[in-house]
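TL;DR need structure tokens for one chain.
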Amino acid sequence: MLGAVAIFSSTNLALFFTPVQLITLALVNIIYIPCLSTVTVLAKDYGWKIATIIAIANFVTATLVGGVTFRLLSLIL
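>> reply
TL;DR here they are.
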């Protein structure tokens, strides 16, 4: 969301996104928050290969959930 605020130079994102898009954006941000410290701890405990797999799986999950949410909300709203 912060990226959208920077791109549009406004904190009122309702001017640029529909309610369905805002809900989807918030949901994906909640599920997938790339935290460097978390990935670093995972790498230290399990190795970089496992940490990378976990980060990619997290990204894919957030994207799939966001896509399904967008489609379902588009039908409802």
